[in-house]
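Worked example 2:
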Amino acid sequence: MKTSAGQRCRRLRERLSRFVDGEVTAAERRAIATHLGHCPCCQATAEGLRHTVEACREAGAARLPAAVKSRARARITSLLAAEQVRSRRT
C-alpha cells in the first residue's frame, strides 16, 4: 500500500519534536532530513519548531532580578501564613 504525501507529512510531524531535540535514530534523522529537503511546508514547520524550542530554552535560562525574587518570596510567605490562620479557624 502506497502512502500519500499528506500521510507522510502527518507521520513526519508526529516525530518532528524528537527530531529537533536530537532524539531519533540515525536512520530516522536521515529520512526526516531527506523529507525536509523536498517538502517546503514541513521544512518551515521544523524551522518554526526549532525557533520556538530555542526561545523557550533561552527564556528558561534567564535569571530573575533579585527584587522580583524577593517580592515573590514575600508574597508566598504571606499567602502561606494566611492559609495557616484560616486552617486554625476551621
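The mean pLDDT is 90. The longest helix spans residues 66-89.
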